[in-house]
Each structure stands twice: as C-alpha cells, then as structure tokens.
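Hello Y.,

Per our agreement to keep a running log of every chain we model this quarter, I'm adding this entry. I've kept the format consistent with earlier entries: sequence first, then predicted structure.
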Amino acid sequence: MMTNDPYRAPEVPRDPTRDARRRDRFDEETRATIWLPIAIAIALFIGLGYYFFEQLIVALFSSLFTWFQNVADFFLVRNISAWTGASGGFPGAGTLPDATQAIIVLGLYTLILGGVAFWLFERRDVQGATGGG
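Predicted structure for the entry above:
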C-alpha cells in the first residue's frame, strides 16, 4: 500500500534470487563453523584413544609374552616417547627404545603415512593435477 508519507521509505520489491544467494552463503558459513570443531574433536579422540590403547596393549602383552617387547619397540607412541625423552606409560611396559632407533622408526612412519595420504589424495582428485580436467 503506497502512502504519501515523506518519512517512510519506498517499498522495494524483493529479489528472490538475491535472498537465496544470501541464504546459501549463510548455510556454507554455518556448516564450516559447525564442522571444524567436530573434526578437531574427532581427531583428538582418535589420537588420545590410540595413545592409551597402545600403552594398554604393550603393558598387557609384555607381561604375558617375553618376545612382545621387541615388537613393541616399533610402535608409534613408544618411539615418540623415546625421541622426546618422556618417561610416561603404564608400569610393566618395559624400557623405551634408543633415541636413534626412535628417529629412524618415526622417519619411516612419516614416509609411509605421507605416501598413503598422497596416494589417497591422487586417487580422489577429480580434476587431475592440472585442475583443467
């Protein structure tokens, strides 16, 4: 309803495509804001779960089998602890490996896991390395 009131702003018809674009942008920003903390929480849960699970397995199997200590010297958390000089872990888990062995084992873990990550990235790359398709 049009009035001749000079202090009232004129009514402008709404553009439905502009509203849809604004809503889509809001949805994308909201999605990113929600999923980032969830992804961080999942990564922390997996990392801490692996940390405690490995120590539990090493403590349990080292007390049951004498040969398991040699196998446990190549696990990830034990080598990180040996490299950083940490003395953590459950009692009965045995001694940590040497720092030189820890650096070599961690280097191998880095190469292997980096290679797997690169292979998965290349396998899932839809556009190809150039991006042109």
